[in-house]
Amino acid sequence: MSSADQSGVPEPWTAQLLHRRLTYVAIAALLLVIEYLTGELIEFPITFVIPVILASWFCAPHIGYSFAIGMAVVRLSFDFVWDSPSILRSMIIINGMINAGVLLFIAFITGKAFRLTREVKLLHGILPTCCFCKKIRDQDNKWRAIEVYIEKRTDAQFSHGICPECAELHYGDVLHKDHPRFNPVLDVHGAQTAAPAKSAAPGA
I want to staple 143 with a disulfide (CB 3.0 to 4.6 A). Which of 8, 135, 139, 187 is the partner? Predict the structure, then answer.
């Protein structure tokens, strides 16, 4: 991740920290150590959702999936290190699979919520706009085309066409059959004159 946002303003150190994967590796490692030291009394450590949610939101959903699977597998290995009764091994494996499934679901929902949040970004406040060319002045006092300004601050993308009114205004003479090329030739004063006769073919 870049240390500056789309407007060119550097991100605060807290935001930079949240966008680094190493942050969540450290959090996950700390939680796993605490889980190991507390023993096998807790079947589903609820604190595991913290790095999964944060990584899915601030990094990417697939990073959250990685933490969900990795933490569930490490937690499952603790049960074998603790030398649980062999009769319970199958239940331990099932419980580990359930833990992984729940964490994966949480990562999926978090990633989907983040995508939806990005899709509904809104521009707030008063936008200083040129009354002639419609460019917008940004916080750096630079005038940007409205397409550039909005694309930098939202996920919207522009495509260009022409509306019927502008087509009529700029290309009406081409679109309508009353264009002079379809009528008798007009002289410079607008009076109708006879269209120039085609030259006879040689030898006619």
Answer: 135
